[in-house]
Design brief:
Layout (H helix, E strand, L loop, with lengths): L6 E5 L6 E5 L9 E2 L6 E2 L7 E2 L1
Antiparallel strand pairs: 1-2, 1-5, 3-4
The structure holds zinc ion.
Amino acid sequence: MPVREDIFWVTCPRCGEKFYCDNQLRHSSIKLMCPKCRHRFLDSDSPEIRE
Ligand SMILES: [Zn+2]
């Protein structure tokens, strides 16, 4: 299965949930929303990012 290159993985700084986002949201000022706890945060606030 090919690795998708149009996404990156982030970790929610509040609950630790890992989820992926569209690369268009990387290095942007648009906040990401955690699907688990609905916390909104910037990608730069994520404790862990995998690209
Ligand atoms: Zn969360």
